[in-house]
């Protein structure tokens, strides 16, 4: 079915919340640990979403760079190191895109490996949701998560009902019941815009080795190749090129660090999450970005107070639903036993090993091409080849 580039209705509004379970905790974690300005972070992040929706005409999200975010939060790195890492990975991605190397990698890395990376990311998101977000709040947390999951499973079957909006509304209702600081919110409204800043040259080497290089394999496999494949799966009538995705990835991150934002990438998980909750056009991420713009420009001073009482299990169940969409994409590999085993091995390595996306991509690609030359496959090719004509 052909959809318009931008559509603004209840379904798109529902789908706009499909990536909030991934984005919001990472943004808050980076703001807290790296001492970033919430106004800068939310405003730049929202603007990026709006531009992505307009450029692609699809629910093509921008997400915080996951490997960078985890490293910054665990090693307590500075904002300058984060911005330097984002700037340098932008340069690397632009070189790969413009030289054609990124497109070559997309041709070389086989589909079972891409599916394995998607499955591994799905496992990671499901683990995060089940271990961290949903258990928070004890009994009430599990009740909210269970109710939210039932809503997400049942309501998308009823045309026109925005399941994502209903689930987020459930979280807001809970927050209101425990007491939102309305007076503080009203007094805290003020206009604040990001200002241009420079990157400390001393942060470039740490940014390269601590952040950019560890992030690169995940970005190539998941943010570019798997995202292109996922877009093709969901929107075959709107083909995207690897080069296009790599260029927008690089160009956005050339700008974001100089205004105090968080480095971002496209992501197959976010695309599936938006789609699963009803998004079919770029309107969903325009709406999603608009919400972040409002928070960044007007409410950044009181945002943490509101977030402190918003139930994390609601974010967790949205994250779990996104994970389920990623896990289901592996279904087309079941028919071929060799492809299925490679995809499963890639998923396990990506999920469980440090630098797992890089290691699993190399191992899976090597096994795939070695498998083409096993005696069993050569015999199969020989049997399927047409007989020579006399």
Automatic annotation (TrEMBL):
Keywords: Membrane, Transmembrane, Transmembrane helix. The chain crosses the membrane at residues 41-62, 82-106, 113-134, 140-156, 163-183, 203-226, 247-277, 283-303, 310-330, 342-370. It comes from the Bacteria. GO terms for molecular function: molybdate ion transmembrane transporter activity. It holds the Pfam family MFS_MOT1. PANTHER family: MOLYBDATE TRANSPORTER 2, PTHR31970. This is Sulfate/molybdate transporter. It comes from Pseudocalidococcus azoricus BACA0444.
């Amino acid at each position: 079915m052909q959809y318009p580039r931008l559509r603004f209705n209840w379904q798109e509004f529902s789908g706009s919340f499909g990536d909030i379970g991934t984005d919001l905790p990472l943004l808050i974690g980076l703001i807290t640990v790296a001492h970033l300005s919430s106004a800068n972070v939310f405003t730049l992040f929202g603007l990026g979403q709006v531009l992505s929706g307009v450029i692609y005409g699809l629910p093509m999200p921008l997400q915080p760079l996951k490997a960078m975010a985890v490293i910054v939060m665990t090693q307590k790195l500075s904002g300058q190191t984060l911005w330097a890492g984002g700037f340098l990975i932008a340069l690397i991605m632009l070189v790969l895109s413009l030289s054609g190397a990124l497109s070559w990698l997309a041709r070389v890395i086989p589909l079972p490996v891409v599916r394995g990376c998607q499955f591994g990311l799905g496992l990671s998101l499901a683990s995060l949701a089940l271990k961290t977000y949903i258990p928070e709040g004890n009994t009430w947390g599990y009740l909210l998560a269970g109710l939210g999951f039932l809503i997400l499973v049942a309501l998308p079957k009823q045309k026109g009902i925005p399941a994502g909006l209903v689930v987020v509304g459930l979280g807001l209702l809970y927050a209101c019941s425990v007491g939102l600081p309305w007076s503080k919110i009203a007094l805290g409204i003020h206009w604040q815009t990001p200002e241009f800043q420079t990157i400390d040259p001393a942060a470039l080497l740490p940014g390269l080795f601590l952040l950019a290089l560890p992030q690169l394999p995940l970005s190539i496999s998941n943010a570019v190749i798997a995202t292109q494949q996922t877009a093709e799966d969901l929107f075959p009538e709107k083909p995207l090129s690897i080069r296009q995705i790599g260029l927008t990835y690089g160009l956005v991150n050339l700008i974001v660090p100089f205004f105090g934002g968080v480095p971002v990438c496209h992501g197959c998980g976010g695309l599936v999450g938006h789609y699963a909750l009803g998004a079919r056009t770029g309107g969903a991420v325009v709406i999603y970005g608009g919400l972040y713009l409002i928070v960044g420009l007007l409410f950044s001073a009181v945002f943490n107070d509101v977030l402190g009482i918003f139930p994390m299990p609601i974010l967790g169940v949205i994250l779990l639903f996104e994970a389920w969409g990623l896990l289901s994409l592996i279904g087309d590999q079941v028919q071929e036993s060799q492809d299925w085993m490679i995809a499963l091995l890639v998923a396990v390595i990506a999920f469980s090993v440090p630098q797992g996306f890089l290691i699993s991509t190399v191992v899976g690609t090597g096994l795939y091409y070695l498998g083409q030359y096993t005696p069993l496959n050569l015999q199969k090719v020989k049997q399927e080849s047409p007989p020579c004509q006399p």
